[in-house]
Amino acid sequence: METDRKIHLLILTACLASVTGCATSMSAPLAKTETVQKVVATYFVSNPLEAAILTEIPTMNPGESGAAGSVIFVAGELYAAASGRRCRPVTITMNPSSGITRGRVACNDGHNWFFSGDVFLTGSIK
Fold first, then answer.
1. What helix, strand, coil percent values describe the chain, rounded to 5?
2. Could you tell me whether strands 123-125 and 71-75 are parallel, antiparallel, or unpaired per DSSP bridges?
3. Are 94 and 123 in contact (CB under 8 A)?
4. Angstrom distance (rounded) from CA 84 to CA 26
5. What range does the record give for the signal peptide (predicted)?
């Protein structure tokens, strides 16, 4: 009887140790990921055109268009992303006569607006 009790306690201790180990190991990578995302969001704007668009879109109404040089862009509806950020789609027309448009998503991390990564390279022709 005493041996059974020791085995049960040993199993319980092993389970608690593994759960505790998993819980503490998950917090470190998450903190590193958030730090990297903040650094990228703050410092990475690939060109002056993107910077000009990101300066204007925070105050634009949904469907409103803006221009930066010969580029026309239209801001979409603001929405709450799964990441907790506020985001909005932006349609960018590089040269209106060519009909080539590109869809991007701009997000705000609470301090800065930035374009999310262009995963699918969404350039298209009207």
1. 45, 30, 30
2. unpaired
3. no
4. 19
5. 1-27
Q: Which residues pair with 89 in a beta bridge?
A: 105
**Dist. CA 93–CA 67, nearest whole Å:** 10
Q: How confident is the prediction along the chain (126 residues), in pLDDT tens digits per residue?
A: 566 665 655 565 565 555 555 444 444 455 555 554 544 444 456 688 899 999 999 999 999 999 998 899 999 999 999 999 999 999 999 876 777 888 999 999 999 999 987 665 555 544
* Token pair belonging to 115: 């374009």
Handedness of CA 28, 33, 38, 43 (dihedral sign): positive
Q: List the structure tokens of 27.
A: 């917090």
> Can you read off the two tokens belonging to residue 42?
């703050």
What 3-state class would DSSP assign to 24?
Answer: helix
Query: Which residues lie closer than 8 Å to 15 by C-beta, 6 or more apart?
Result: none
Residues 114 and 63 occupy one common structural domain: yes
Position 66, amino acid: G
Does 15 share its domain with 59?
A: no
